[in-house]
Amino acid sequence: MRVSLPVSIVLLASTTVLSAEDDRPNFILCMADDQGWGDVGYYGHPVLQTPVLDEMAAAGLRLDRFYAAHPVCSPTRGSVMTGRNPNRFACFSWGHTLRPEEVTVAEALRDAGYATGHFGKWHLGSVRAEDPVSPGGSGFDEWMSTPNFYENSPLFSHRGTVVETEGESSAVTVEAALEFIRSCQEKDQPFLAVIWFGNPHTPHEALPELRALYPDATKAEQNYYGEITGIDRAMGLLRSELQQLGVSENTLLWYTSDNGPQGKSPGSSGGLRGAKASLWEGGIRVPTIIEWPARITAPRVSDVPGFTSDIYPTLLELAGASVEHQPTLDGESLVPLIDGVMSERNHPMGFWVYDRKGISTPAAKLMQQLKDEQDGKIPAGEPPALTPAARMEVEFNPEDRPGHACWIDGPWKLHRILNESGDADYRLYNLDKDVLEESDISDDHPERVRRMQDELDAWQRSVIRSLNGEDY
After folding, report:
1. Residues 429-455: b if buried by 16+ CB within 10 A, e if exposed
2. Among 55, 268, 417, 418, which is 20 to 30 Å from 442 by CA?
3. Strands of the sheet with 251-257, listed across from one edge
4. pLDDT, tens only, 335-365
5. Residues with Cβ within 8 Å of residue 60, at least 6 apart in sequence
6. What is the crossing angle of helices 311-319 and 73-82, to 10°?
7. What pLDDT is attached to residue 19?
8. Model pLDDT for residues 144-195, shown as the tens digit of each residue
9. Nearest CA among 211, 194, 218 for reference residue 114
10. Segment 418-445, tens digit of pLDDT
11. Three-class DSSP category at 361
């Protein structure tokens, strides 16, 4: 595989003076695109081959109740970047963006002396250098990114300049990240590397050698399973190189997915109800593993609930970083969970699919257009405008709360679903006893429903206040 970089990777100097021996951990955040909770061998998939992920799950911290903060891609990615529910900054659905006013994990860690790099799918803005919500505008010094999902030999934007790559989609992405990691290791500088794969999102185009691993499967299954095995092999390449560089011991490697499987794909939710775009368990519960040999010294499995909004506060605590004017967070630090001293979550988790349409972001077309501009074939373009909501030109009513929402507190999950007349119906499930969410027990627990309903309503009003710009 080959990644063609027109210029060498340059790590920008931080205003923070580093000590001669900076022993803070490195961070690598890996995220698959539409990989379901059941799309791994370690949960018993009968066909899928994921030996590296299986090894990680057996050696590290396996999180069995980890959730995407939203059941589609851009909002979940926004939650990773900010530690906040994506509706707070108008990232309502796929193709919506960050707000420039948000504080990202890359900005916070860069200010604390970390080198920061993004590789692969972005989907929180364009990948034009001048865009305030590009990876570069969002705190990443180094980036090889594309605006949405991508297939093999993709065009990437290297800090705004289009470069060609050659090879399997996930492997090319990891190889780009490894160049950055090697540069950080040479400078003895701690780093944040965000690796967001483009698979197994449609259209599913696995290499022949990966399809051949599944001779008895249908063509659709061969491509889908092959793409996930491609991710698995790329994770193997990443872990092997970290070991060779001597940085694996003190590197926190966090693997997860952005949402559940697409409903019409061969993807698996592991039998859970629902799929991508749904707040039922199958739409938001995702496979998640944390490896950090220096701190997670023995394998563990946890059923403490967590979600992607927790990543930001966890990394900031571990790095000793702080943000002077921190907007309201929805996530909480999972450092106690990493250290094995957390038996339950401190705060409930809110989820909300605000009723807004997605925005088309055809990566291949957009990258070819940017390349043609840079080759002088067509006039230079501009980054797409932010939505009126992202520009805070729309005032949202805290009493108008459209869409499906839910509130998770320990084993209890309360759904708020609008009926045909626009009124809210509430359904309660005990996930310890009914993980498939088949039996609504709200009538049996009226006091619990009232308390959770009040908490959910208060949280949604808080989200609307943020959406209206009160956090900035």
Report:
1. bbbeebbebeeeebeeeeebbeebbeb
2. 268
3. 2-3, 161-166, 155-158, 142-146, 115-121, 191-196, 26-32, 251-257, 289-291, 61-63, 300-302
4. 999 999 999 999 999 999 999 999 999 999 9
5. 253, 289, 290, 291, 292, 296, 299, 300
6. 30
7. 42
8. 999 999 999 999 999 999 999 999 999 999 999 999 999 999 999 999 999 9
9. 194
10. 999 999 999 999 999 999 999 999 999 9
11. coil
Q: For the chain, how many residues are written?
A: 472
Q: What does the block give as tokens for 395?
A: 């005032």
Angle, to 10 degrees, between the axis of helix 219-245 and the axis of helix 51-59?
50
Residue 35 amino acid letter: Q
> Contact at 8 Å (CB) between 285 and 67?
yes
Q: Tell me the pairing of strands 26-32 and 191-196.
A: parallel
pLDDT at 397 over 80: yes
- pTM, whole model, 2 decimals? 0.95
**Per DSSP, what are the bridge partners of residue 119?**
144, 195
What is the share, in percent, of the chain residues with pLDDT greater than 70?
96
DSSP E strand boundaries for 73-154: 115-121, 142-146
**Rounded Cα gap, residues 159 and 361, in angstroms:** 19
Do 383 and 160 contact (CB within 8 A), yes or no?
no
E strand or H helix at 66:
strand 66-67
d(CA 404, CA 416): 6
Model confidence at 39: pLDDT above 70: yes
**DSSP assignment of 133-158:** TSTGGGT-SEEEEESS---SS-EEEE
What domains lie within the chain, and their CATH numbers?
Answer: 22-349 (3.40.720.10)
